[in-house]
User: What shape does this take?
Amino acid sequence: IALVAVTAGLVRRHARTVESSARAEAPAWEKGARAVAREVGDNPVLWRELRRPISKRRWQRIAGPIVTIALLAGTYVLVAWDNPRTLGYEETQIAYAFGFQFVIGLMLAVFSATAVAHEKETDTWTLLIASPMKGRQILWGKWWGIWKKTLGVIALAMLHLGAFVLAGIVHLPGAILTLAVMVGFTSVWVSSGLLLSLWMRRVTTAVAINLLLPITAYVGLPLVLLLISELLGVRDLPDLVLWYLPFYYIVLAIDREPGRTV
Assistant: This one.
Protein backbone atom coordinates (compact mmCIF):
# COMPACT_ATOMS: atom_id res chain seq x y z
CA ILE A 1 0.00 0.00 0.00
CA ALA A 2 2.86 2.35 0.89
CA LEU A 3 4.60 1.61 -2.42
CA VAL A 4 1.36 2.26 -4.36
CA ALA A 5 0.85 5.56 -2.52
CA VAL A 6 4.44 6.66 -3.20
CA THR A 7 4.19 5.65 -6.86
CA ALA A 8 0.90 7.52 -7.25
CA GLY A 9 2.45 10.58 -5.66
CA LEU A 10 5.44 10.47 -8.00
CA VAL A 11 3.22 10.06 -11.06
CA ARG A 12 1.04 12.98 -9.99
CA ARG A 13 4.09 15.14 -9.37
CA HIS A 14 5.54 14.20 -12.76
CA ALA A 15 2.21 15.03 -14.43
CA ARG A 16 2.23 18.49 -12.84
CA THR A 17 5.79 19.03 -14.07
CA VAL A 18 4.85 18.08 -17.63
CA GLU A 19 1.78 20.32 -17.50
CA SER A 20 3.86 23.26 -16.26
CA SER A 21 6.42 22.72 -19.02
CA ALA A 22 3.72 22.54 -21.67
CA ARG A 23 2.14 25.74 -20.38
CA ALA A 24 5.50 27.52 -20.41
CA GLU A 25 6.06 26.53 -24.04
CA ALA A 26 2.53 27.44 -25.12
CA PRO A 27 1.89 30.63 -27.14
CA ALA A 28 1.38 33.83 -25.19
CA TRP A 29 -2.34 33.96 -26.00
CA GLU A 30 -2.81 30.46 -24.50
CA LYS A 31 -0.83 30.84 -21.27
CA GLY A 32 -3.71 32.38 -19.36
CA ALA A 33 -6.17 29.68 -20.36
CA ARG A 34 -7.17 27.06 -17.83
CA ALA A 35 -6.86 23.40 -18.75
CA VAL A 36 -10.55 22.56 -18.64
CA ALA A 37 -12.76 20.50 -20.91
CA ARG A 38 -14.73 22.60 -23.40
CA GLU A 39 -17.72 21.76 -25.53
CA VAL A 40 -16.90 22.41 -29.19
CA GLY A 41 -20.27 21.33 -30.61
CA ASP A 42 -20.62 19.35 -33.82
CA ASN A 43 -18.26 21.60 -35.83
CA PRO A 44 -14.77 21.83 -34.30
CA VAL A 45 -13.53 23.89 -37.26
CA LEU A 46 -16.13 26.58 -36.63
CA TRP A 47 -15.33 26.52 -32.91
CA ARG A 48 -11.62 26.95 -33.63
CA GLU A 49 -12.02 29.65 -36.28
CA LEU A 50 -14.32 31.80 -34.14
CA ARG A 51 -11.94 31.63 -31.17
CA ARG A 52 -8.63 31.94 -32.99
CA PRO A 53 -7.26 35.50 -32.65
CA ILE A 54 -5.90 37.33 -35.67
CA SER A 55 -2.65 37.90 -33.82
CA LYS A 56 -1.19 35.62 -31.18
CA ARG A 57 0.46 38.47 -29.28
CA ARG A 58 -1.78 40.36 -26.90
CA TRP A 59 -0.13 43.72 -27.44
CA GLN A 60 -0.74 43.45 -31.17
CA ARG A 61 -4.44 42.72 -30.60
CA ILE A 62 -4.65 45.83 -28.42
CA ALA A 63 -2.48 48.12 -30.55
CA GLY A 64 -4.16 47.18 -33.84
CA PRO A 65 -7.59 48.73 -33.13
CA ILE A 66 -6.02 51.74 -31.41
CA VAL A 67 -3.75 52.50 -34.37
CA THR A 68 -6.60 51.97 -36.86
CA ILE A 69 -8.94 54.34 -35.02
CA ALA A 70 -6.11 56.86 -34.66
CA LEU A 71 -5.43 56.75 -38.41
CA LEU A 72 -9.12 57.28 -39.20
CA ALA A 73 -9.28 60.21 -36.77
CA GLY A 74 -6.11 61.58 -38.39
CA THR A 75 -7.82 61.57 -41.79
CA TYR A 76 -10.68 63.59 -40.27
CA VAL A 77 -8.20 66.19 -39.07
CA LEU A 78 -6.41 66.37 -42.41
CA VAL A 79 -9.64 66.63 -44.41
CA ALA A 80 -11.06 69.35 -42.17
CA TRP A 81 -7.76 71.21 -41.71
CA ASP A 82 -8.47 74.05 -44.14
CA ASN A 83 -12.25 73.90 -44.14
CA PRO A 84 -14.17 72.04 -41.38
CA ARG A 85 -17.19 71.82 -43.65
CA THR A 86 -15.32 69.50 -46.00
CA LEU A 87 -16.32 66.51 -43.89
CA GLY A 88 -19.93 67.39 -44.58
CA TYR A 89 -19.59 67.17 -48.34
CA GLU A 90 -21.19 64.16 -49.97
CA GLU A 91 -18.09 63.66 -52.11
CA THR A 92 -16.02 63.27 -48.94
CA GLN A 93 -18.35 60.62 -47.52
CA ILE A 94 -18.34 58.80 -50.85
CA ALA A 95 -14.54 58.75 -50.75
CA TYR A 96 -14.61 57.30 -47.21
CA ALA A 97 -17.13 54.65 -48.30
CA PHE A 98 -14.89 53.74 -51.24
CA GLY A 99 -11.98 53.39 -48.82
CA PHE A 100 -13.90 51.08 -46.49
CA GLN A 101 -15.11 49.06 -49.47
CA PHE A 102 -11.52 48.65 -50.70
CA VAL A 103 -10.11 47.65 -47.29
CA ILE A 104 -12.91 45.17 -46.52
CA GLY A 105 -12.67 43.63 -49.99
CA LEU A 106 -8.89 43.37 -49.76
CA MET A 107 -8.98 41.70 -46.35
CA LEU A 108 -11.68 39.23 -47.35
CA ALA A 109 -9.92 38.36 -50.61
CA VAL A 110 -6.65 37.64 -48.82
CA PHE A 111 -8.10 35.81 -45.79
CA SER A 112 -10.37 33.59 -47.91
CA ALA A 113 -7.56 32.63 -50.29
CA THR A 114 -5.35 31.57 -47.38
CA ALA A 115 -8.05 29.70 -45.43
CA VAL A 116 -7.50 26.23 -46.88
CA ALA A 117 -4.18 26.70 -48.69
CA HIS A 118 -2.51 27.50 -45.36
CA GLU A 119 -3.88 24.24 -43.93
CA LYS A 120 -2.32 22.39 -46.87
CA GLU A 121 1.08 24.00 -46.36
CA THR A 122 1.08 23.14 -42.64
CA ASP A 123 -0.13 19.55 -43.29
CA THR A 124 -3.25 19.96 -41.14
CA TRP A 125 -5.60 19.71 -44.14
CA THR A 126 -5.10 15.93 -44.26
CA LEU A 127 -6.28 15.65 -40.68
CA LEU A 128 -9.37 17.71 -41.45
CA ILE A 129 -10.47 15.72 -44.48
CA ALA A 130 -9.73 12.46 -42.64
CA SER A 131 -11.98 13.49 -39.75
CA PRO A 132 -15.64 12.40 -39.61
CA MET A 133 -16.76 15.97 -40.35
CA LYS A 134 -18.55 16.68 -43.61
CA GLY A 135 -17.05 18.95 -46.24
CA ARG A 136 -19.68 21.63 -45.79
CA GLN A 137 -18.94 21.76 -42.06
CA ILE A 138 -15.28 22.49 -42.75
CA LEU A 139 -16.04 25.14 -45.38
CA TRP A 140 -18.75 26.82 -43.32
CA GLY A 141 -16.38 26.97 -40.39
CA LYS A 142 -13.77 28.62 -42.62
CA TRP A 143 -16.43 30.96 -44.07
CA TRP A 144 -17.49 32.34 -40.69
CA GLY A 145 -13.89 32.51 -39.54
CA ILE A 146 -13.04 34.76 -42.50
CA TRP A 147 -15.88 37.16 -41.69
CA LYS A 148 -14.90 37.15 -38.04
CA LYS A 149 -11.47 38.52 -38.95
CA THR A 150 -13.01 41.52 -40.73
CA LEU A 151 -15.62 42.36 -38.09
CA GLY A 152 -13.41 45.12 -36.69
CA VAL A 153 -13.25 47.03 -39.97
CA ILE A 154 -16.96 46.50 -40.64
CA ALA A 155 -17.77 47.79 -37.15
CA LEU A 156 -15.54 50.81 -37.78
CA ALA A 157 -17.44 51.53 -41.01
CA MET A 158 -20.71 51.27 -39.10
CA LEU A 159 -19.45 53.72 -36.47
CA HIS A 160 -18.28 56.14 -39.16
CA LEU A 161 -21.57 56.07 -41.03
CA GLY A 162 -23.58 56.18 -37.81
CA ALA A 163 -21.72 59.27 -36.62
CA PHE A 164 -22.41 61.14 -39.84
CA VAL A 165 -26.04 59.95 -39.85
CA LEU A 166 -26.45 61.54 -36.42
CA ALA A 167 -24.76 64.68 -37.76
CA GLY A 168 -27.35 64.85 -40.55
CA ILE A 169 -24.79 64.49 -43.33
CA VAL A 170 -25.61 60.94 -44.45
CA HIS A 171 -29.20 59.72 -44.60
CA LEU A 172 -30.06 56.55 -42.72
CA PRO A 173 -31.34 54.59 -45.78
CA GLY A 174 -28.16 55.53 -47.63
CA ALA A 175 -25.98 54.33 -44.75
CA ILE A 176 -27.84 51.01 -44.56
CA LEU A 177 -27.54 50.51 -48.32
CA THR A 178 -23.82 51.37 -48.19
CA LEU A 179 -23.19 48.75 -45.49
CA ALA A 180 -25.23 46.19 -47.43
CA VAL A 181 -23.15 46.88 -50.54
CA MET A 182 -19.89 46.56 -48.60
CA VAL A 183 -20.89 43.17 -47.20
CA GLY A 184 -22.86 41.81 -50.14
CA PHE A 185 -20.49 42.57 -53.00
CA THR A 186 -17.36 41.49 -51.12
CA SER A 187 -18.93 38.14 -50.18
CA VAL A 188 -18.41 37.09 -53.81
CA TRP A 189 -14.64 37.22 -53.33
CA VAL A 190 -14.92 35.18 -50.14
CA SER A 191 -16.47 32.35 -52.16
CA SER A 192 -13.91 32.66 -54.96
CA GLY A 193 -11.08 32.76 -52.43
CA LEU A 194 -12.27 29.57 -50.73
CA LEU A 195 -12.59 27.87 -54.11
CA LEU A 196 -9.09 28.91 -55.17
CA SER A 197 -7.77 27.92 -51.77
CA LEU A 198 -9.16 24.43 -52.35
CA TRP A 199 -7.68 24.19 -55.83
CA MET A 200 -4.24 25.73 -55.24
CA ARG A 201 -1.50 24.19 -53.17
CA ARG A 202 0.37 27.45 -52.58
CA VAL A 203 -1.01 30.37 -50.57
CA THR A 204 0.67 33.01 -52.75
CA THR A 205 -0.89 31.61 -55.93
CA ALA A 206 -4.40 31.56 -54.47
CA VAL A 207 -4.05 35.10 -53.08
CA ALA A 208 -2.66 36.51 -56.33
CA ILE A 209 -5.45 35.05 -58.47
CA ASN A 210 -8.16 36.09 -56.02
CA LEU A 211 -6.84 39.66 -56.03
CA LEU A 212 -6.77 39.71 -59.83
CA LEU A 213 -10.44 38.68 -60.09
CA PRO A 214 -11.96 41.93 -58.69
CA ILE A 215 -9.40 44.00 -60.61
CA THR A 216 -10.49 42.27 -63.81
CA ALA A 217 -14.20 42.59 -63.00
CA TYR A 218 -14.14 46.20 -61.81
CA VAL A 219 -11.41 47.68 -64.03
CA GLY A 220 -10.49 45.36 -66.90
CA LEU A 221 -13.98 44.51 -68.16
CA PRO A 222 -15.25 48.13 -68.12
CA LEU A 223 -12.19 49.23 -70.10
CA VAL A 224 -12.74 46.48 -72.66
CA LEU A 225 -16.41 47.40 -73.04
CA LEU A 226 -15.50 51.05 -73.34
CA LEU A 227 -13.02 50.24 -76.10
CA ILE A 228 -15.57 48.07 -77.93
CA SER A 229 -18.22 50.78 -77.64
CA GLU A 230 -15.85 53.34 -79.13
CA LEU A 231 -14.96 51.04 -82.02
CA LEU A 232 -18.51 49.90 -82.77
CA GLY A 233 -20.29 53.09 -81.84
CA VAL A 234 -22.48 51.44 -79.18
CA ARG A 235 -22.64 54.18 -76.57
CA ASP A 236 -24.77 52.37 -73.98
CA LEU A 237 -22.52 49.31 -73.69
CA PRO A 238 -20.27 50.59 -70.83
CA ASP A 239 -23.35 51.55 -68.80
CA LEU A 240 -24.23 47.88 -68.43
CA VAL A 241 -21.18 47.42 -66.18
CA LEU A 242 -22.55 49.85 -63.60
CA TRP A 243 -25.16 47.34 -62.47
CA TYR A 244 -22.59 45.04 -60.86
CA LEU A 245 -20.13 47.68 -59.61
CA PRO A 246 -20.42 48.32 -55.86
CA PHE A 247 -19.16 51.87 -56.29
CA TYR A 248 -22.21 52.76 -58.40
CA TYR A 249 -24.58 51.83 -55.57
CA ILE A 250 -22.46 53.61 -52.95
CA VAL A 251 -22.62 56.83 -54.95
CA LEU A 252 -26.34 56.33 -55.47
CA ALA A 253 -26.87 55.78 -51.73
CA ILE A 254 -24.90 58.75 -50.41
CA ASP A 255 -25.08 61.35 -53.17
CA ARG A 256 -28.79 62.05 -53.24
CA GLU A 257 -31.15 64.90 -52.46
CA PRO A 258 -33.20 64.79 -49.24
CA GLY A 259 -36.60 63.23 -49.81
CA ARG A 260 -35.60 61.37 -52.95
CA THR A 261 -35.76 57.61 -52.66
CA VAL A 262 -32.86 55.43 -53.69
Summary: Residues 88 and 169 are 6 Å apart (CA to CA).
